[in-house]
Serine arginine-rich splicing factor SC35-like (Olea europaea subsp. europaea), 267 residues
Amino acid sequence: MSHFGRSGPPDIRDTFSLLVLNITFRTTADDLFPLFDKYGKVVDVFIPRDRRTGDSRGFAFVRYKYQDEAQKAVEKLDGKLVDGREIMVQFAKYGPNAEQIHKGRIVEPVSRSKGSRSRSPRPRYRDDSREKNYRKRSRSRSRGRYEKERHRSSGRDRDRDRDRDRDYRRRSRSRSRSHSVSPDYRKDRGRGRYDDERRSRSRSFGSASPARRSPSPRRSPSPRKTTSRGGSPDARNHKERSPTPKSVSPRHGADSRSPTPRSDTDV
DNA sequence: GTTGAGCGTT
């Protein structure tokens, strides 16, 4: 019962998902459970972790049974120092069933046949309460961006933009800002989730011209060095150093980013 | 061993 997220979503009928950000990478669901459970009934706590390393991503999802409790936890736990870090608690907007989520509340798609369900209006809280909290922090880095998008588009369009933006940040976001974006951001792909598959496929097609990134500096770029063994061309070869321009393809120079400019065809 | 904007799994 202590392991949340291990057995997947237990039961989400009318639970309010809270997003906990800014948590340390060492914080686990077990650590947040007692913290959030103190302010209300926590149905489930889930902390997304990396598929490869398995490390926490730095944020967790806490599902409350009632909104009032969730709201309370947001106001109480939001900005709380956890593990030496100030966590940010806010209602989850997006998610697996973002379309079914309303202000953090997850409604079940089923039970739709009967029209007796009616719409349960919630003339209780409003975004104003939340906004006030956000204003207090005033440390939001790119929170304003969201508001802008909200005003710009609405409905499904928003989802599209959201997805795009998310993906972009996923790749752009490097381990550390200080190091900027390294040319060898391959490792950074770790956060790319299953996008790797897509990438791999593209690479497979480009197998026609492999050994482009790593032409094995150890071995000579010229496979036909039969005469170089016992001949004078050895010295000459050393001078040229580029007997096969096609191997390195210095034409584009920094083409390391796009090894296959014709990837459009393989798509 | 590291990192720090953000939105999730069996």
